[in-house]
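Working notes for the structural subgroup meeting. M.R. asked for a predicted model of this chain before we commit to crystallization trials. I am recording the input and output together here so anyone reviewing the notebook later can reproduce the run.

Input as submitted:
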Amino acid sequence: MAAGIPNSMKALVLGAFGGPLELKTVPVPAIGANDVLVKVGACGVGLTVVNLLATPGRVDRYPRIPGHEIAGEVVAVGEGVRTIKPGTRVTNHFYMTCGNCRNCRNGRETLCLSPRGNIGQNRDGGYAEYVSLPERNVVAIPDGVSDIDAAVASDAIATPFHACVKEARLRAGDSVLVIGAAGGVGIHMIQMAKLCGARVLAADVGAAKLDFVRSVDAADVVIDASAGDLAAQVMEHTGGEGVDAVIDIVASRTTLAASLGALAVGGRLVIIGAHPPKVYGEDPSFLVDPIRFLHRGLEIHASRYVTLAEIERTLELVRDGKVRSIVTKTVGLAEVPALHEAIRRGETLGRVGMVFG
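Returned structure, recorded in token form:
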């Protein structure tokens, strides 16, 4: 190890599928020729990692250190690294892509044809004091953006950027329904949609979540999805026309059916969330009426994470104050397992994360 870097570190380790996350002392990871070693400053904690750990077959090898929304300082680089120097603050891209297939070369790296897995799933992640990351996965953090805000931006804010700009194609004057608005992605989706110039209808359930959405003061309309037919409520708020886009972060069978019913002529449904059947015990499949789709010119888009360029752009938006990182709770490393349980029970609001120091 380089001078000043310890031989061991604290990390949360998953020993086997279904087992507990355990705080252990493990070796600081070695880095390959094209890797960088990052001293972790913060790591986002969200539903993606909770679902990942609960889905059989996702993690390819145990023991494994989870955590993919990472921010910190590069403390060492491999001999082949050319673009990153020690002392650079970085966040990261979740997917490990080949960089050479036609999709990667066309700026569609989330659809890489030769994927190498995900950080925190097929390679140890950021629930640790140090993490080794591929050079091609890291993105420099602009001055003025904190570690926790950068970690959140790498997924929970960058995902809304991609969904609003690339998939929903929101423009000034459009209307959009955000389902699951109080969550870590949803609360930033509202801001991003407003930045695009859209009128935002934000839907969630439960008084605490609805009050939280109102407190952020970004949505134009807040809808209680449990207060009746969601599509009908949307029609009431749009003069019977429906919305130009629905961004469904929950993506259950119920919400997806309501999403289709809420669309205006030419509307776009953007699916972000996922309800894995092996985790939630229910089939999220939904029916599509092809005649209605044809006559109304509707579209369905799958919004699959983001590109490296989109993470860079998102960090600039956070730096410039265009979008605010909404982090409602941070904990230390040892408290992350309890935070996972709170997320699983739907008790968290906005984004939550882990910080060192």
